[in-house]
Amino acid sequence: MASVLATSRISHPVKDISEQGKLIDRMVILTSKQLELLDAEGNVLWIIGRRELDKARILDTGSGAYLEISDLRGESRRIAFSPLSGMRGLYRCQRSITDWVNEDLKGPAQRGAPIESRSSADEKWDEEKTKPLTLRQRIRIISRLAHYALPYRNQILLSAGVLLLTVALEMAPPYLFKEIIDGGVLPSSNSKFAGLIGLLLTVYILQALLAVVRTSISIRIGSQVMSHIRKDMFDKLISLSVRFYERRKTVHFIGRVQNDANGIQGLLTKGITSILVQLLMACSILVILFILDWQISLLIVSAIAISCTLLWRVFPVMRSLMNRKWNADYWLQQYISETLHGIRVVKAFHRDEKEKELFREYNETSVRRMMDQQRYTLWLKPGISLAISTSVAMVWFFGGRQVMNGAMSFGTVIAFTAYLSMFLEQLQGNFRITKAFNASLMSADRILELLHTEAEVSESKHPIAMPVMRGEIVVKSLAFGYEKGINVLKDVNLHIRAGEKIGIVGRSGAGKTTLIHLLCRFYDPDAGSIEIDGVDLRQLAISDLRRHVGIVFQETYLFDGTIADNIAFGCPEASPEQIIAAARQANAHGFISRLPYGYDTNVGERGEHLSGGEKQRISIARTLLQNPSVLILDEATSSVDIETEREIQEALEQLCKGRTTIAIAHRLHTLSNTDRIVQLDKGRIIDSTKSGYEYVGEGVR
Amino acid sequence: MSTIVNLSGTIAEDEGTHDWLSINPSQIRFTKSEGGLLQAAWQGMRGTVTVRRLFPITRGDSYIAIADPEGNEWGILLSNVGLDELSRAALSSELRVSPYLPLIEGISSIRRRFNHYVWVVDTDYGQLHMITGPIYEITTNLLNGSRVITDLDDQKYLLPPDNELDKLSRKWIGKFL
Ligand SMILES: Nc1ncnc2c1ncn2[C@@H]1O[C@H](COP(=O)(O)OP(=O)(O)OP(=O)(O)O)[C@@H](O)[C@H]1O
Ligand SMILES: [Mg+2]
Q: Which domain holds residue A515?
């Protein structure tokens, strides 16, 4: 691309928004001397010399980004707006302009230097996603999946051998027909006739036996391979970072783990061998056909060639119809799951009718697409059958005439038609297999994509173990944003001594939760660092970090199970004494012991059988049982009444002894016993007060 | 009573480390009053008490909370093993309905009616009929292989592991569960 730039004009169509809020088309033209900005009619709006241009940068306003170019005098101009041109379009144009300027400044020596910017990586990703699978890619996918089948290679080989034998046996009957007719029936030879029938029966019995053997092998390997793949997928899903899930819908993964593993299991265990064998079989039949009568065979081959070409054209359409149906099903599933999860909200806002209507739409789309797909394939099967019958009739026509002329035996015609229908069945079978094969490859692709996703937050290569944590936390010039360009935290500096109790206050959205998410290393900072006991979190062994840092989340999440299970979530081996002790500390024992099933009470899906405050206290107990060195409370008492809050506070106070505690609260009195209160505003620390009372006294809110 | 939880400590070896009082079975006496109320005497305290199982399903005979009628907890009885004979009898009869959790001893039949199932089961409370919803919704597996079955009224029943049931019951389980 770089070399082209030097000689020719490059043009980028971009879209911007006018001051009146209208969409306007523009064209950025890069010639060897200057950059021209044209409007839709081709009128020049702005020209800037190649050497006068200073930079092209992307400015994020929070609600869309602009591409802005500025000249050396400091004058700048917005030329494109991301919601209209697309973020990638913006990056592409920016890169092109930057390359164009660089090339001029640095001369040809720099030409072709790889500029691996974010945008080019994105583009590559984009292209890879949209291209159909090439043969080489398919082979790569299969070979990478092959290691799942590797442990069973002996059985797979055995099953392939059995399959080969089956093929050979399937070749026999038509030949036997010929012999029966020409050698037994027509000459009326009783002994030969009986012998041949016996042989035919033996062949059929053997065929049945081999089929049983083959299926039993594939059942055994198949399920093992599948459970292995599922396990790997789930392990991966668990290890992926929080951010991975923020960008995706979780329903998606339920289906993936179940269906995709299923989809490739067949491919791995019998698909590949059976394709090879089928191919072999088709070839051998073809050879036999040519030996029996090459002229008729030639006719047939040309007819098949024509049909294949037709099918070749049908395939892509079918695939697209299948994909469209799949998408509609996916949306439907997602919609159901989302609505049912939020059923209370749906009812509270009286959205029942509206939701039903929405469902109807999703459902209709799905059904319509299914019908589209089925209609399209409607004629396919009858069409193929018709073609088959026609060719059989053709064989009878030509063959029959030759028999009448005495040029061919009657048995040969019978054998020929039998082989032919076998061959055509084969073709049909191959057609089916190819379809299944394609679907499996799609599954395989999705599985590999998942298994090869790098966890954004991953264990360092040489993790530092920390069996004991004192709990000194140093935050240095920390910056972080969930999306690039929008910083939620900016230059946060904080030193928390071991055992100190600090409170964090700040407006909603100030970044309090974000700060502690970083402390728990759900994300890694964009800049700056967080150290615990002098070790950067990125270096620290994740298991030790999780063991020593306990967090009570702002939003309580309990798992379907008993209260005892939920409290012991972090320490499954905890004794009932420990569970009761933790529940008491969190002031939960009282209400638990009044429940008919006590600690064995089932909390329901996501804990919905309990009240908000009860859930919160259980989640506090869960964290306390973990006995962390660093205790983080994200508005841990926000959904309990004042009285309970005071009780929990008392318990927490005892508990904070000897631990570093970070408590976030909206209500200041909650933090009255902290050593220090830190105020966070718009991602910055604006105030750090020594005493909680002082803070309250000043009335800062 | 220490206020710091000893979370890594083990059972009652060192009672002082829990912030709650564990009641040693050998030190408490239970009796039934004339009116059928449960009375207890422990460490100078005596009077009517209410008792509750804290882990009725997973550890039925251990961890029993003892409280006065106002709900102030005396402490937690770690196990009913070690109680004297009379106390044990008094306590068990009181705990019989705390909670009411029949133990299924045998299954006489399970019949499917539309989307409901009608069970006829023998329990430690005698033969019962129960009606449940679809099978996949009503069972919860416990670690020891037992299952809790919940019927349409939210009443729970304990179903022991398969190997503790007779052949007929196993047949019904094999057919539906
Ligand atoms: N997962 C996320 N993806 C993108 N943006 C996020 C995400 N979580 C939070 N934000 C944004 O980051 C900012 C800080 O959020 P944060 O949850 O840290 O606020 P907070 O101070 O804890 O507020 P509150 O007191 O309401 O809990 C908010 O503007 C929020 O919209
Ligand atoms: Mg928050």
A: 473-700
Give the CATH number, domain containing residue A514: 3.40.50.300
The continuous run of DSSP H or E covering A171 comes out as: helix A153-179
Q: Which ligand is nearest to the CA of A683?
A: 1
Write out pLDDT tens, residues A314-369. Answer: 777 877 787 778 778 878 887 888 788 777 777 777 778 888 888 898 899 889 88
Alpha carbon distance A409, A190 (integer Å): 20
Q: What is the DSSP letter of B17?
A: G
Looking at the structure, do residues A606 and A652 belong to the same domain, yes or no? yes
CA-nearest residue of chain B to A600? B55
Kindly report the nearest CA distance between residue A589 and chain B, in angstroms. Answer: 10
In three-state secondary structure terms, A126 is helix
Answer with the residue of higher pLDDT: A499 or A146. A499
* Chain-chain contact of A589 with B63 (C-beta, under 8 angstroms): no
CATH number at residue A100: 2.30.29.30
3-state class (DSSP) for residue A48: strand
**Does one domain contain both A27 and A79?**
yes
Q: Hey, is A199 helix, strand or coil?
A: helix
Q: Residues A487, A446: one domain?
A: no
Structural domain total, chain A: 3
CA of A547 to the centre of ligand 2 (A): 22
**Is the separation of the CB atoms in A489 and A478 below 8 Å?**
yes
Segments making up each domain of chain B, as ranges: 3-95, 104-176
How far is the alpha carbon of B1 from chain A, nearest alpha carbon, in Å?
Answer: 13
Hey, which of A480, A484, A513 would you mutate to test ligand 1's pocket, going by the most ligand atoms within 8 Å of its Cβ? A513
Phi and psi at A112, nearest 5°, equal 80, 0
Instruction: Compute CA distances A72 → A48, A49, A107, A476, whole Å.
Output: 10, 10, 20, 35
Q: Indicate whether A125 and A151 sit together in one domain.
A: no
DSSP track, A436-477 = HHHHHHHHHHHHHHHHTPPPSS---SSPBP-SS----EEEEE
Cβ A537 vs Cβ A545: under 8 Å: yes
| Cβ–ligand 1 contact at A510 (below 6 Å) | yes
pLDDT tens digits, one per residue of A367-403: 988 888 888 877 777 877 787 778 778 888 888 888 8
Cβ contact (<8 Å) for B55 and A599? yes
Instruction: State the Cα–Cα distance between residues A288 and A280, nearest whole angstrom.
Output: 12
Q: Look at residue A606 and tell me whether its pLDDT is greater than 50.
A: yes
Q: Do A383 and A406 have their domain in common?
A: yes
Q: Which residues contact A283 (CB under 8 A, 6 or more apart)?
A: none
In a domain, A139, yes or no: no
What's A43's DSSP letter? -
Q: What is the pLDDT of residues A267-276, one digit of tens each?
A: 776 666 677 7
- Inspect the interface and report whether the beta carbons of A581 and B8 lie closer than 8 Å: no
Could you tell me the CATH number of the domain that includes residue A327?
1.20.1560.10
Angle, CA of A306, A312 and A313, to the nearest 5° = 100
